[in-house]
Design a protein that fits this description.
The two termini are 16 Å apart. The strands form four sheets. The protein has a five-stranded antiparallel β-sheet with strand order 2-1-3-4-7. It has a five-stranded mixed barrel with strand order 13-14-16-19-17. A four-stranded mixed β-sheet has the order 8-9-10-11. The mean pLDDT is 87. It has seven helices and 20 strands. 22% of the residues lie in helices and 34% in strands. By secondary structure, the chain is of the alpha+beta class. α2 packs antiparallel against α4.
Length: 309
């Protein structure tokens, strides 16, 4: 998907602007879809409706939000804001803090996660959603721009060719840093092998908000993303991998609406796993067991959650 960025809007042949949500409604009601052109360079594009992507290795399908993509054989023109390669080059050359994103030469860069990890650890001691210090704010803006670009490209092929990730003395593969819904189980397993919270980025679709409950001494609201459902190979057992963002500022979490695609970055940890059983819907002799595994994040600054748009 690195030829172009997933688009949220396009224009029709008569110049009318069409947004993804409106195109999805047309698709759902079986209306004729308009011929679409890129609103940046007028090359042909197409609407891809929301769908489920088939899983692998026992995984159930993962939901994919609707988007607009290039037609087969089309390319965004140089200078178009949807040209992924040009957009990446602009981000890398935009004067980011060289302590965080130093140039290595020949157009390559290194993103130093330890700098951000240490800044977030310091921030965990301050009041919720307090203004970030200037370096942390700059680090998060740079990182969020890069992560949104990866999310909208669909894979890390483009970024990994020009951007190396490093955590202290260790090089980090993009696959060990950025996880979509279809890889939540891998993120959970990686957290289980870590001695402390790990800096990771997860891509998700907002499913619900669990508001503060009466008598809750923690005073926390939760934003929950659509989980990954995993078949285990064991009869009548299924694993669920759920992403949960907890914070005391309910209004902030609710500013990310249900159905929105978001990138969540921070120091993640394994939450508690829980087991529930219920009778099989058609065979009373059987019991279905579901095990829920939590991936938990407690943001300390607002820049750790960003909309993909």
């Amino acid at each position: 998907m690195s030829r172009g960025i997933k688009m949220r809007k396009a224009v029709g042949t008569h110049g009318t602007l069409h947004r993804v949500a409106d195109l999805q409604k047309r698709h759902d009601t079986q209306q004729t879809l308009p011929t679409l052109l890129c609103d940046g360079c007028n090359v042909p594009v197409r609407f891809v409706p929301a769908h489920d992507r088939s899983g692998a290795d026992g995984a159930l399908s993962a939901s994919v939000p609707a988007y607009i993509a290039l037609n087969k054989g089309a390319e965004h023109l140089p200078g178009c804001r949807y040209n992924a390669r040009a957009h990446l080059q602009t981000l890398l050359a935009s004067g980011a803090d060289p302590e965080f994103l130093p140039a290595l030469g020949d157009g390559a860069y290194e993103l130093r996660l330890l700098v951000l990890q240490q800044a977030l650890k310091r921030g965990s001691a301050v009041a919720p959603l307090s203004p970030a210090d200037a370096p942390l704010d700059g680090y998060l803006r740079t990182l969020s721009d890069l992560l949104i670009l990866q999310a909208m490209c669909g894979d890390a092929t483009l970024l990994s060719a020009q951007l190396t990730l490093r955590l202290g003395k260790k090089r980090v593969d993009w696959a060990d840093f950025f996880y979509g819904q279809d890889r939540y189980d891998e993120a959970w397993e990686r957290l289980g092998t870590a001695s402390s919270e790990l800096p990771m980025a997860l891509l998700g679709t907002v499913r619900s908000h669990r508001m503060l409950q009466p008598g809750d001494s923690q005073g926390v609201t939760f934003l929950n993303c659509a989980p990954k459902y995993q078949c285990t190979g064991v009869t009548d057992r299924r694993d669920f991998y759920e992403v949960s963002i907890g914070h005391s500022d309910a209004a902030w979490l609710k500013s990310f609406p249900v159905g929105a695609e978001i990138v969540m970055f921070g120091l993640w940890r394994q939450g508690r796993s829980s087991t529930a059983s219920r009778p099989h819907p058609t065979d009373p002799r059987r019991t279905i067991t579901s095990i829920t595994h939590k991936l938990a994040l407690r943001p300390v600054v607002a820049g750790q959650l960003v909309l993909v748009e």
